[in-house]
Amino acid sequence: MSAQNNSGAPKPPTPHGAPDFRIKAHKGSHINKVIAVVSGKGGVGKSSVTGMSALWARRNGYQTAILDADITGPSIPKMFGVGYPDLVATEECLYPANTVTGIKVMSMNLLTKQEDAPVIWRSPVITGALQQFWTDVNWGYVDYMFIDMPPGTGDVPLTVFQSLPVDGIIVVTTPQDLVSMIVKKALGMAKLMKVPVLGIVENMSYVKCPHCGEEIRIFGDSHVEEIAAKENIPVIARIPIDPQMTSFMDTGKAEYYESTFMEGLKDVLPPIE
């Protein structure tokens, strides 16, 4: 079956000869760069890293957006203190919610009146909803859009890589030995989909003693530098376990948390055209 654009006409093949399944964004959207934040497994703090990446971009003057692709487990709205009343819908399109500092957010939790209402959908419905976040939402002008991906290498990541013009991915991991194997799977998928890997973020890297400042590695020694060197990709950040950060994000005040952990993004994000 030939890939088709929104008008139904077949798209030309990509330079590699494969069909192009990418879909058009809403006519009111002008999105410069799309960055997917991925992890090979759940529980590594991928959504937190997505939020911190968006905060770094916004604080550095970029028009920033977050597309929450974790349809069945969305957490971005709670982190930024936005919800159902913040979404604007017209007959023609949806408009993303805006956070306190002007980060645009679209998430399944903005479409449900109860944030804890479960989304019990099969994969085709989930991937269809995700594509509508791209085609039916008027994002306006965006410099950097960060996509909070669900964990793993299943249908939704595949849909994002095939349907959206992803410019690069950020891989999130933690220090445990087991995670290195999972990271390699995420990197392998990126290579198969021909999506550049911008770098690795090691989350929960250490705990800093509040009395002496010593870094305590509760999950053991880090292997992120070894993995990064072997794959020839940079380490963007090593983020500690910080109860204050957790408190701000759990109460919808992520934008009030000050940190410099994600400064490494300035060296890896593709430039705005």
Looking at this protein, list some descriptive labels.
globular, disordered N terminus, 19% strand, alpha/beta, 12 strands, 7 helices, Rossmann fold, two-stranded antiparallel sheet, 273 residues, eight-stranded mixed beta sheet
Present the secondary structure layout.
Layout: E1 30-38, H1 46-59, E2 64-68, H2 76-80, E3 88-89, E4 94-95, E5 97-98, E6 104-106, H3 123-135, E7 141-148, H4 155-163, E8 168-173, H5 177-192, E9 197-202, E10 207-208, E11 215-216, H6 224-231, E12 235-238, H7 243-250
Parallel strand pairs: 1-7, 1-8, 2-6, 2-7, 8-9, 9-12
Antiparallel strand pairs: 3-4, 5-6, 10-11
Account of the 3D structure:
This protein is α/β, with parallel strands linked by helices and 273 residues long. 27% of the residues lie in helices and 19% in strands. Helix 3 runs parallel beside helix 4 (155-163).
- Percent of residues in beta strands: 15-25%
Alpha-carbon distance between the two ends:
34 Å
Q: Biggest β-sheet: count, sense, barrel?
A: 8 strands, mixed
Total individual domains: 1
**Into which percent range does the helicity of residues fall?**
25-40%
E-strand count: 12
Could you please say which CATH topology applies here? Rossmann fold
Text of the CATH class: Alpha Beta
Segments where pLDDT lies below 50 for 5+ residues?
1-10
